[in-house]
UniProtKB/TrEMBL annotation:
GO biological process: 'de novo' pyrimidine nucleobase biosynthetic process; 'de novo' UMP biosynthetic process
Lineage: Bacteria, Pseudomonadati, Bacteroidota, Chitinophagia, Chitinophagales
Keyword Cell membrane (UniProt): yes
Compartments (UniProt record): Cell membrane; Membrane
Catalytic activity: (S)-dihydroorotate + a quinone = orotate + a quinol
Residues of the active site: 179 (nucleophile)
Pathway the protein contributes to: Pyrimidine metabolism; UMP biosynthesis via de novo pathway; orotate from (S)-dihydroorotate (quinone route): step 1/1
Gene Ontology cellular component list: cytoplasm; plasma membrane
SUPFAM superfamilies, sorted: FMN-linked oxidoreductases (SSF51395)
Binding annotation for substrate: 70, 115-119, 176, 181, 246-247
Assembly information from the UniProt record: Monomer.
Enzyme Commission no: 1.3.5.2
Protein name per the record: Dihydroorotate dehydrogenase (quinone)
Keyword annotations from UniProtKB, A to Z: Cell membrane, Flavoprotein, FMN, Membrane, Oxidoreductase, Pyrimidine biosynthesis
Amino acid sequence: MYGFIKKILFGFAPETIHHGVMRGLKIVNALPFGKNLLDAFCQPKNAGLERTLWGLRFPNPVGLAAGFDKDAKYLDELAHLGFGFVEIGTVTPLPQPGNDQPRLFRLPADQALINRMGFNNEGARAAAKRLQKRRTNIIIGGNIGKNKVTPNEEAISDYEKCFHALFDGVDYFVVNVSSPNTPNLRALQEKEPLKQLLHHLQTLNMQKSRQKPILLKIAPDLTNEQLDDIIEIVKETGLAGIVATNTTISRANLQTPQAELEQIGAGGLSGLPVKERATEVIRYIHRKSGGTIPIIAVGGIFTAADAQEKLDAGASLVQVYTGFIYEGPAIVKKICQGLSQHQ
């Protein structure tokens, strides 16, 4: 059924239909029996998929990656689609419009997306207010970044502001230094600036009466030597884990015509083309760290087999984004059904 609906949805500009569909979901959720209807179609019914990590109990291991609900507007609605957790953001201290539109593109031949959104969001204060008003108790991650106008030399201040603003409303944090759509952001993945940033956030964390897990989201384009540095830094700073991986700047082995790719231009590629590399990164980190670093896997997860591949490589949890767009609102239910058969 979703295949037919998808043809209609894909007839509209990606960003336009995203907001339209989510507004529609809000309406359905507000109708009498709307929540029950969503639960019946989308909620996993499989027992034994719970995961406990960082003292948090995840009802199932399938979450929604950052970028979909940037401003925490749809948490109550997304909870009824079966997600075990939702990651909001990327949130920056100040509101910013992001890059010029169009900035989100579908590559159906590759089951992929290219985005150059540029951390468009309403700012940390607005997200914090919505988090206070949410009704669902679904686990929430807060993905934080810096404003575009903030130079890298002052980036720590931006991450600190987001950390404080969101602390009471989220269950864990993800430090995003790996988006390709904010100029020079990925330079913060280099060893010394990254170590300084993470040490600072962990110091702030330890000053709280109770600490929140802080994870690092990394790019799939890192070399093994850079991954070795990441592993060392995560251990040294006592970070809770890694989210692997963000979007890639690579355009290798795509089915989409080169002329179309050139017309689209810059941006991060997500979806099926990232699947293999994301799994490689997860397997490498898991092996080199001796399995001591918890990993949230993201990248090319469309089916239960895709999710199982990530879990077998060493991930503890998985996230979907592009797969959600292509597979539809029943994706969590389908993945959980498949995972339950491997237990």
